[in-house]
Amino acid sequence: MGFSATHISAVETGRKISTLRFSRSADAVFGLVGTEDTFERQWREIRHGVLLEGFPEFLGYESRAAEIRLYEVGVIPGLLQTPEYATVLAQSAVKRGAITADQAAERVSIVADRQDVLLRTPAPMILAVLDESCIRRPLGGPDVMREQFTRLLEFAELPNTVLQIAPFEMGERRPFNLPVTVLTLSDRSIMSYAESAQRGHLERDNNSVVPMLTAYHQLQAEACTQAASVALIEQLRKGSS
Fold this sequence. Notes:
The protein has 241 residues and is an alpha/beta fold. It has helices at residues 5-12, 20-30, 39-47, 55-62, 83-95, 101-114, 132-136, 142-157, 206-222, 226-239; strands at 67-72, 125-131, 161-166, 180-184, 190-195, 200-203.
């Protein structure tokens, strides 16, 4: 296996969580590579157990989308979070008793894995509109927020991104009340993803997705320009120093 007996025992009894490397090693030892019932498959199912129903399927499409349009409320979206910001959110859920410490670690790991899409070749076009509450809500203290603001500014400088802030002043002109993501795949098919408190929903029906895409365009038209959005974030970053 390449792991100590103590480590293997800890995984067997649930004191340690399995890793992808551990699972693949077990598959090799037991001759399960290429079969349907592998330790790797079980590991992936357990890992996705910390996610909302519907989100694992969405992740598969997000990782190969040609265009990603997202709108978020209250928190910085996962694709743009720093590890420190993601950790604060996960640890907060642990303190509330919503998840375990191991599940929190998995959530932070999944956030990091999702961000690989930013390094993909060819890179997808990513359009992000953040409700002003995302940048006004302090999480983790000044240092965490300062680094998070820096990450947003770096994101805005990329050639394949657009970052906008939807100000509070938009009021009733805001077309969405909840976070939403619209994906365009390489074959130009589109789908949307939205979440409730209990589950995520992936929608592929054009009759539902096209109106959502239209509403997203309206949102962009009403939101601050990228230049104005960057200026606001820079102002907040200075205030967090």
